[in-house]
Amino acid sequence: MGNLSLSILVLIAIFGSCWSREVVSDNDDGGLYPFIGTNRETLEIIIGGGGGGGEAPAPSPEDCPPPPPEPECPPPASPPPPPPPPPPLPSPIPKPKPKPKPKPTPKPPPRPPSKCGYRSSNLCFENELLATSYGVILKFKKLIKPDENGKRYTKTWNGPNVCKYKGFNCDVRPDVKKKQSPPSISTALSSPASMVPFHSTISSTD
After folding, report:
1. Cβ contacts of residue 1 below 8 Å, gap of 6+?
2. What is the DSSP string of 88-150?
3. Is there a domain that residue 57 lies in?
4. pLDDT in tens, 32-43
5. Is residue 169 part of a domain?
6. Which of 8, 35, 42, 129 is deepest in the core (most CB within 10 A)?
7. Residue 122, by phi and psi: left (phi above 0), alpha (psi -120 to 50) or beta?
8. Among 122, 132, 125, 154, which Cα is nearest to 201's?
9. How many domains in the chain?
């Protein structure tokens, strides 16, 4: 307040002297009275702080509040979230198992070499004596009367394996060491219905 009063007094002294000079210079005819009221109003305006021409002096730095503290630095921004993981790769399609290879068909065992010691009538016989017996048996077969008893035997008399004919037995001739048929014949063919002139057929094998 002391500084403010001092400033006002200084302003009054300055403006008072200025106004007195202007009044005297403007009224050469000595008419000072019309301006006395004006000077008083002017002084009242200056003293009362009116008129809007003067501004209040700035307060001293001691009366100013301290400046606000500087804002602290904001915390560093958090790092962006990591990108989402890529989608999982599709599982590979399992390959179909190869079909097992079919097992090769086993080859039949080779046939044993045929013992073709003598060939006759497009048939292979073990020796010449059996080939001769085959021809004799075919003649004998034609002489047998056709009955049920004889058919059981004669139906097996086919092919070169003479020793397997039913009713005949093969044996080895001691003089030549070869099989010959028939050294003997089954008596089943000796029934009255199967009687044949057997002596003629046997003699043809000698």
Report:
1. none
2. PPPPPPPPPPPPPPPPPPPPPPPPPPP--SEEETTEEESSHHHHHHHHHHHHHHHHS---HHH
3. no
4. 444 444 555 555
5. yes
6. 129
7. left
8. 132
9. 2
pLDDT digits (tens, 9 = 90+) for 52-65: 445 556 656 566 77
Q: What is the pLDDT of residue 5?
A: 67
Q: What is the pLDDT of residue 114?
A: 58
Q: Rounded to 10 degrees, what is the CA torsion of 176, 179, 183, 186?
A: 170
- CB 186 within 8 Å of CB 153: yes
Dump pLDDT digits (tens) for 18-36.
555 544 444 444 444 444 4
Least Cα distance to 47 among 2, 13, 23, 21 occurs for 13
Domain extent, residue 41, equals 2-48
Tell me how far the alpha carbon of residue 172 is from its chain's centroid: 78
Structure tokens at 178: 């070869």
103-161 tens-digit pLDDT: 888 888 776 665 677 888 788 888 888 888 888 888 888 887 777 877 888 888 888 88
Task: Transcribe 49-69 into DSSP letters.
Answer: T-SS-S-PPPPPTTTSPPPPP
Which residue in this structure is represented by tokens 């000595």? 30
> Tell me, what DSSP letter sits at residue 196?
-
- Answer for the pair 94, 83: CB distance below 8 angstroms, yes or no: no
Tell me phi and psi for residue 120, to 5 degrees. -155, 140
DSSP helix/strand/coil, 19: helix
